[in-house]
Design goal:
The complex is a heterodimer of chains A (272) and B (298). Chain A is mainly α and 272 residues long. Helix content of chain A is 79%, strand content 0%. The radius of gyration of chain A is 23 Å and the shape is globular. Chain B has helices at residues 3-31, 52-60, 65-72, 74-107, 113-125, 128-139, 144-152, 165-189, 193-201, 206-217, 219-234, 238-242, 251-260, 265-297, and strands spanning 34-35, 42-43. Chain B is built from 14 helices and two strands; from the N terminus they run αββααααααααααααα. Chain B has 298 residues and is mainly α. Chain B starts with a helix and ends with a helix. Chain B is globular, with a radius of gyration of 25 Å. The chains are: A mainly alpha (272), B mainly alpha (298). At the A-B interface, helix 1, helix 3, helix 4, helix 5 and helix 6 of A face helix 1, helix 4, helix 5, helix 6 and helix 8 of B.
Chain lengths: 272, 298
């Protein structure tokens, strides 16, 4: 028996109001006619128009998107490999260092990661720009991917893969035909996590970028340092809308996929 | 060892080694160097063309001068202390706000729980920068909070909240609240309710049962949540620079300014090294807690 009282209902209402009100207010004020962001002067979508005509923002959005797609894709491949190593490879030389390097970036302050990568890029004389941001983002997001994927891998029934090997699959074919479809939801959520982390990152990108590449968070940060602006409100609203739609769709899809998968796995387990 | 396994281990290993481990060695090296008016702006440079003599004189020129400098200029240790203080207080407040929410979620009807969980996770996917920015419009002198308070008549003068430490506390609690709720909720959800009933049957009041049964059983979640808030809060940069004022001292901000405004790379590196040393203890404690939990479950 679970007890759910008025006290719980009140704390949940207040708590979620605290979490969501600031964003709701931001969204409402993005439709404000007035340039003064704290005074309501009627409904208007003109700031969205201004935003779409602002070439600097569009360029920055394009840079950010490219960085996010490349870094999250490489990070997903490397992170899945690292997860396989962590869960499957048993003992090897330097295993402790390996798992240390996977977990350390998760708790490392961004300023330190950014500073150290910048000093590396300068040390080896690499021109800073989109390429260096991709390297930096891949490095920290592959660690998140490997944590997500390894939790799925460790709960996965290895005998399925062994059966494939016994039936004459090559190790790679067994991975592609058996393991990968089963860990796919984790790989996909790892990719999404890496993608959002990259879209979101201000500090590491600021350190590792050069004059040729400005990402959206860098652009937003330099704009909001001067104060609140209706254009940024409009941009934020668009980003919040995209994230909300994205999260809800993927959670519905992965939920359906994982239910179907559990059914398949159980059927397979019964068959063996 | 077969080639496939070697390849599988070597690729992520080399990647992390080159882009995570090597950069740290470089930071350590530059922290021991001196600032110089050159490109890059520090000395000594490793001169391999001079052979062994070059390596020897390179190591001879490294010293702890920057670390001594950090202890003499009180800006730095004040920044470390105030980062610790801000992180501690905001972690505590986050716990006070997050625990009742996690508790309420765990007590909600089971068909509601996935939705509530999603509502906690959703802000985490939304841009951190935007969520902090949202508070700038609320907390400013002409902002909505002041307008609301003036309208209710609770205050007659607008309160100055933005650009003070209070705004930084609000920002940290707001931004990291999901990190506190999720592990506590995970611990509370697993809890067996018959334990509470047993405690009450044995004569506990509901409040005592809560203190003696629920809190201890959710301890691992509380510890995990506190570390998940405390560790990133110490090195936080975005929150103090957008919501804090000139009087807000936080080490992430100091490091940023030392690097970008003063262009003093050796001192910035030394600041980073000390910050890491401060963080190592909570990180190790956090890992232990996670490991204990895994063992308890496995």
């Amino acid at each position: 028996m679970k007890r759910f009282s008025w006290f719980n209902a009140t704390t949940l209402t207040l708590g979620f109001a605290f979490l969501y009100l600031p964003m709701v207010i931001l969204v409402i004020y993005s439709f404000n006619e007035s340039k003064l962001v704290t005074v309501w002067a009627g409904f208007s979508t003109k700031w969205y128009g201004e935003l779409l005509r602002n070439q600097e923002f569009l360029d920055a959005a394009w840079v950010t998107l490219r960085v996010a797609v490349f870094s999250s894709t490489i990070a997903t491949i490397l992170g899945t490999m690292a997860a396989t190593v962590l869960v499957r490879s048993g003992r090897f030389m330097g295993r402790t260092l390996f798992s240390g390097m996977i977990y350390a970036p998760l708790v490392m302050p961004e300023v330190i990661t950014g500073l150290s990568l910048l000093l590396l890029f300068i040390g080896i004389g690499l021109d800073r720009g989109v390429f260096t941001i991709v390297l930096a983002h891949t490095t920290f997001s592959m660690c998140y991917v490997s944590v997500v994927v390894s939790s799925r891998l460790s709960s996965f029934d290895r005998s399925l893969e062994e059966a494939a090997l016994d039936l004459g699959c090559s190790p790679f074919a067994a991975f592609r035909l058996v393991t990968l479809p089963i860990i796919a939801p984790a790989v996909i959520s790892g990719w999404l996590l890496a993608f959002t982390l990259s879209l979101d990152d201000l500090v590491i990108a600021s350190f590792t970028t050069g004059p040729s590449a400005t990402t959206l968070p860098i652009k937003i940060f330099s704009a909001v340092r001067l104060g609140v602006s209706p254009e940024i409100n409009a941009l934020s609203t668009l980003m919040i809308a995209i994230v909300t739609v994205g999260v809800i769709t993927t959670s519905l899809i992965t939920k359906r996929a994982s239910v179907a998968q559990q059914r398949d796995e159980q059927a397979a387990a019964r068959a063996t | 060892m077969n080639l496939r396994r070697f390849f599988l281990i070597a690729v992520p290993y080399l990647w992390l080694g080159a882009l995570f481990l090597v950069p740290f060695v470089i930071v350590l090296k530059i922290a021991l160097s001196d600032i110089a008016l050159s490109i890059p702006p520090y000395t000594p440079q490793l001169d391999l063309s001079a052979g062994w003599e070059g390596v020897r004189s390179f190591f001879a020129d490294l010293d702890f001068e920057n670390f001594t400098f950090l202890t003499t200029d009180d800006l730095y240790w004040k920044a470390y202390l105030s980062s610790l203080q801000i992180a501690l207080i905001s972690t505590f407040v986050t716990l006070l706000v997050g625990y009742p929410m996690a508790y309420g979620m765990a007590r909600a009807a089971s068909e509601w729980r996935p939705t509530l969980l999603m509502l906690v996770i959703l802000p985490f996917w939304t841009s951190f920068l935007i969520r902090i920015y949202a508070w700038m419009g609320i907390l400013s002198n002409e902002g909505l909070l002041n307008q609301f308070l003036l309208w209710t008549g609770l205050i007659s003068e607008p309160l100055t909240i933005l650009n003070t430490n209070l705004a930084v506390y609000i920002g940290i609690v707001y931004a990291y609240l999901p990190f506190m709720i999720l592990p506590i909720y995970a611990a509370l959800e697993k809890m067996d309710d018959s334990l509470l009933e047993a405690a009450e049957d044995l004569g506990c009041s509901r409040v005592t049962a809560f203190w003696l049964v629920t809190i201890p059983l959710s301890k691992s979640g509380i510890i995990a949540g506190c570390f998940l808030v405390f560790i990133p809060a110490i090195g936080e940069f975005v929150i103090p620079s957008l919501l804090g004022g000139s009087g807000t001292l936080m080490i992430g901000k100091v490091l940023w300014e030392e690097f970008f405004s003063n262009r003093d790379w050796p001192v910035a590196s030394a600041v980073a090294i000390i910050l890491l040393l401060i963080l190592i203890i909570p990180i190790i404690l956090f890992q232990r807690n996670e490991q204990k939990q895994r063992e308890a479950e496995g």
